[in-house]
Amino acid sequence: MYDAKSVNGMVPQPPPSRMDFSTFESPLDFDASGASFDDDGGRFVAGEQFYNHEMYGSLRKGGAVDFLSMECLGLAAATFTSMLSYQALIVLVQPMYNTQLGLSPSQIVAVNRLVQMPMALSFLVGLLSDCYPIMGLRRKGYMILGCIINGVSVFAIAGVSAALSDNKDASEGMVILALILVALASIGCIITYVCVHTRVIEYSQRESLRDRGAIQASYLIFRRVVSIFTSVLSFLALGTGSEPNMSVSAAMIVLGVISVLPLPIIFRYWNEEVYLLNTSMKTRSQILWKIMQQKAVWRILAFIWFFTLFLGIKFSDSTGVVTKWAGASGDNSLLVKTIQDLVMIGIMLIWRYLFINRLWPIFFALAPAFQILPNLFVSLMVALDIVRNRYFYRVFYSMTYVSDGIGLLNTIVPVTEIVQEGSEGALVGLTLTLQRCVNIFVDTNANGIFKGTNYYNAAEVAKDTSDARWDVLLSLFLNFALNALAWVGLFFLPSQKLDAQQLRMYGGFTKAASAGIIAFCLALFIYGLIMTLMSLFPSTSCFVLVGGSGC
């Protein structure tokens, strides 16, 4: 707005300034500006005009929240149903595959991979939630939708299971229907997971620089607690005998009821800002395409790729041989899973209170170290028949769960610093899609090129000969060498929070990165899909690449 005098050609007078200051004093009135001098040492303390703590201390307005507060009650309820639904679904549906659908062991492995492949749609779920909010809610609306899809599918699985009874000669149509329902339930779980994960990152961006990550630790700890509860529930349903304690239909009904129970709490207590501006998929995709070209983004995705791939490679057959030699193969599965979850909870607490503001490469470098060193030591002791004791084995092997705990943080801690407002769901979904595509590749090759029996003779192992011991050890040495390649990913990881933000703002762009990321994810997904489909048909399941013994 112009002053009338200036419009008429007159030069406006400058505002009055202080002239009564000494030679070494500033003319600025510190009291009025919000700054002051420390009474004790005369140290200058910047006021609000010099440093806005709310602006520079956090990445998003709103203030920090506690995961276990009333404000996050809806989010906690959503986390509960998201974690329980997926973990229990994968376990409780297993008896239906062999007792009712008549699938072979190799087909069951393939089906398990097939129904988990929809997780690769996380990118699409996140993009849709960013573009088209449901009733103005980008996360809550899709969270409720995913919960309903999962619940309806689980109840439908219960109906199909009840109709099949113990008939192993189920028609092809019934088999396809059952698998489609399991896939739909899996899709519902994926939608809820993307919404919960994205919302946690949005809350985390509201935390100050010093405390950012606190809600992430609480969230991940709560997920492990729910995992323990789910393991107990699954153990009670399946039991330890050849026959489950509950029928599949009854177990599915119980799971469905528990999964939808948190819905009223989510309706009432999920807090989220209303977002009424719809953005077309084309516009949002173009924005995401540009975001993927940012150096900070593709470097963090490269780090996630290295860690997910090389720490995910495990020669389970070779590890199983060592476990059997140690006399630990018959250990209670519930106890082993609970120990794993407790170790991971401990890692979350250690990170929260000791490493939250330390250099990322130092912390994440511990993951390959704890996966390799304890495993190497106990494998040598057991395989060479120096110490073969189940308790000795379990103590040292449990140390490898530290790596699993650190692995939980690699898709949430660095990503929080690079997520941009408006594209949160798409970028978080892209991260989860990349992780799932790599997992699909690893799981697909677990019965192929990463199969331990490719490197030793099972008959010699049964005799426990010296040659067999070294063959098993050499296969594990190869496994550990592949695990060590995860350290290469640390070269792509920013040093800490501020470094990641600086890299995002001033690191520049790499135009080929977007196409490379999409092409890479598609290649891994298509490879896994082809290998999985090949293992379903007898004419192609004999190939060694898909886990067969040769055609």
UniProtKB/TrEMBL annotation:
The protein's topology relative to the membrane is: Multi-pass membrane protein
* Alphabetical UniProt keywords: Membrane, Transmembrane, Transmembrane helix, Transport
Instruction: Look up the record and report any one GO term of the cellular component aspect.
Output: membrane
The record's principal subcellular location, in a coarse class, is: membrane
Pfam families under this entry?
Answer: BT1 (PF03092)
Q: Where in the cell is it found?
A: Membrane
Q: Would I find Transport among this entry's keywords?
A: yes
Q: Which InterPro entries match?
A: BT1
Q: Which residues cross the membrane?
A: 73-97, 117-135, 142-164, 176-196, 217-238, 250-270, 296-315, 335-355, 362-384, 472-493, 514-537
Secreted among keywords = no
Identification of the protein by name: Transmembrane protein
